[in-house]
Amino acid sequence: MTDAPPEAPARDYRGTVFLPKTDFPMRGDLPKREPGWLARWETMGLRARLRAQSKGRPPFVLHDGPPYANGPLHIGTALNKILKDVINRAAQMSGLDADYVPGWDCHGLPIEWKIEEQYRAKGKDKDSVPILDFRAECRAYATHWLDVQRNEFKRLGVLGDWDGRYATMDFPSEAVIAGEIGKFLMNGSLYRGLRPVMWSPVEKTALAEAEIEYHEHVSPTLWARFRLKTASAADLAGASVVIWTTTPWTIPGNRAVAYGPEIDYALVHVEGVAEGSALVQGEFVLVALPLLPQFEKDAGLGAHSVKLLLKGAELEGAIAAHPLAGWDGAAGGYDFDVPLLPGDFVTTEAGTGFVHIAPGHGEDDFNLGRAHGLPVPETVGDDGTFTIHAPGFTGQHVFKAHDAVYAACLAQGTLVAKAKLTHSYPHSWRSKKPVIFRATPQWFIAMDDSNAIRAKAMQAIAETHFVPDIGRNRIGGMVSVRPDWCISRQRAWGVPIPVFVEKATGTPLRDQAVIDRIVDAFRVEGADAWYQPGAAQRFLGEGYDAAAYEQVMDIVDVWFESGSTHAFVLTPERGLRFPADLYLEGSDQHRGWFHSSLLESVGSRGVAPFKAILTHGFVLDEQGRKMSKSLGNVVAPQDVVKDFGADILRLWVMNTDVTEDQRIGKEILKQQAELYRRIRNTLRWLLGNLDGFEAAETVPHAALPELERWVLHRLAELDARLRRAVADHDWTGVYPELHAFCATDLSAFYFDVRKDSLYCDAQDSLRRRAARTVIDRLHRCLTTWLAPVLVATAEESWLARFPDGSVHLQDWPAIPAEWRDEALAAKWAAIRAQRRGVTGAIEDLRRAGTIGASLQARVAMAVPVELAEALTADQWAEILIVSQVALDPAAEPATQVVPAEGAKCDRCWRVLPEVGSSAAHPTLCRRCEAVVA
């Protein structure tokens, strides 16, 4: 017996498989590599090239709301700037001319405050420093932080005219702001008046509503008697009206008591009192009937009887004595009559139904006092201490005066009760200290004069597109009820209100020639020109005597400044049209920049400076808490960029619902990094399977298999989604949808199905060429669609195929109408639903160990009638990624999965009966044999 010849060694076919090949790395290594991309764009003059190629395109203008040049960026500002950058880049790539001019707000109290802190640390008195020297230090401080923030914005990948940025402290900006004030002066809307404003005793200046935030505060409360001197009802003789207030310090400024004409009041005879009560048995007090039960508890009222019920209107003409009348400490300073007056703001929600009126310390108080000719004493000075017009309290701080007021009332027998109340109270958003209402002479812009700013603003709001639409109600509700705009501040760092007032008449000088001289000087010298010696006569000119005029030294509210930015940014010189297509800021700017820009523009131009407003929420930590240093939960954008890269931070922004509050933290950023990895792997897979792709391979659309045409349909849907977002500025869900497409439609389905064809079909086969045709389209679409967000990653992906260009110089691909096929989409939705049912059965066999990979399976299945002719058995095998499929409408159960019959092909790994039938390649299937041969 002869020995059998030795078996030929098994052939290795791995070299015949067309595996993906690309230099695009799996890891982005963003923190290290992103600076290189920034340098590349700078060197190639990316922005200039974009501007050159955009000539003649329809413009898109997103006007940048100015961040404050005070300290490094925080995460909320980073979110804002990234969102703006994505929207601008997307508009540009959709075919528009989207230039972007970033800007800064540089004036105002926070910077003054920082310089004063430096002075205090050195034991230096700010008031002893010449104002021009002080302003120079403020300017240097703002310049430093502007440069720091500019570099931080650049590191985030934000593209803009950084060299041509605007700042409110630039000389030309200060000139335009002065000119805008002049417009209101000339049209009569600017006036000086005595009005109660929110005043910060700490910062010694008036504040706007936008500069106020509300915090819990413990206020001392007071119930006090106002003894009636005269009243029309004889039964009220000797009775006392009881008021309740949360501001006992306003008692020295009291000049009246308000009642509600329709409120039922009870004349109460005190017959018993609780221990410690300041009520007196036998006295008569007047309180609102609905509030009597609560008054019993608050004042310690015991047994009592109601002797008389009367409507508030019956108190008309009544006169009371001030609760401090006759007090020795005041030397007769409060011995005047206090009238009872009707007030429609008086309610029975709390207190006693009577409101003590201090005309210098409240809007309602002031208006009621003005209507009835009450005096408005200036009882409180700039620093929050009582003036000589508060006899007996002069020099005391209002927030520490309640005990002294209690003692004075006790001495006069007018103290009924005292307590404490925890409630929401206005604070300065800068110093975080409580503010007061204080009547002072200030400059106002009228809301309802002949200029009709309120009416014009409400009309503009109705015509503006809001995202989300609730913003319309927020800003509309504020504008509809807001008082006249107080634009004066008693500080030094800012644009002065360039007005002269005739001393003899108190009338503001309205002369356009004077305004023009001021504006011309500011344009060259800056607003410092206002403070130079001889400035008054210089600006007044030969026609006026400076000695006869007061030169106003207040500066203008910084909200007026930032509200005027459209006037020096949206200009022909910059190539930016007015009004802007979009204003985009945080939701708090409905009372801030959106609000002031609207009022300033409609007051000076008659129209809004924007066509649309997009608002985003605030950034919270992972537990939904506000970030604070004390909690240690602050996420700094600089740290995120260092640890993860700017592309990850940008992806986080666009993966959130920006119209709501967003959360961020290490775990959330790790999740974003995982989403980024999937997107990057998608791009890498596309690039790998495009190795060597030439345009000649392209298969015409009509010759593409249905699966490829379905992918193109999905691209058409996504293209429409992105272009709709550009048009209506609503980006919520757009990039999550793009990620889902990559993960679900591509990686988990199309790529999985087509790997076999791409790796194993002949290079010139229709199916492989068709797949590469679509992969080419996928790469072009996905890379350009991702470019507004993943600026570095998209560039890297683009250059991997087109090394001489830049993705940021591309437009989004134009999608042919023939790609959209709703009937095909419906058909493939049904096919995928059928597929999901079968893959579940395959997974059951894999978990049981019956088969390993799905290619080891044979599927017998029944298909619904509507899919009976959708695919052949071989096509179903392709879609299911199994080796064999039998279509049997009578199969029971509907799907049966068993191990496939035959042997495994060494090249494509399909299990087929035909494997082994070839003498030349006994371990290959017929397809693979043909390719190898």
The CATH homology group name of the largest domain? HUPs
Find the structural class using helix and strand composition. Answer: alpha/beta
Sheet-strand content, in percent, reads: 15-25%
Mean pLDDT: 91
The outline comes out as elongated
Q: Rg to the nearest angstrom?
A: 38 Å
**In total, how many domains does the architecture comprise?**
4
Largest sheet: 10 strands, mixed
- Percent of residues in helices: 25-40%
**Beta-strand segment tally:** 31
- Corresponding CATH architecture of the largest domain: 3-Layer(aba) Sandwich
Total helix count? Answer: 26
Q: What top-tier CATH class of the largest domain fits best?
A: Alpha Beta
Query: Unreliable runs, pLDDT <50, ≥5 residues?
Result: none
Report, as a whole number of angstroms, the end-to-end distance. Answer: 37 Å
| CATH fold category name of the largest domain | Rossmann fold
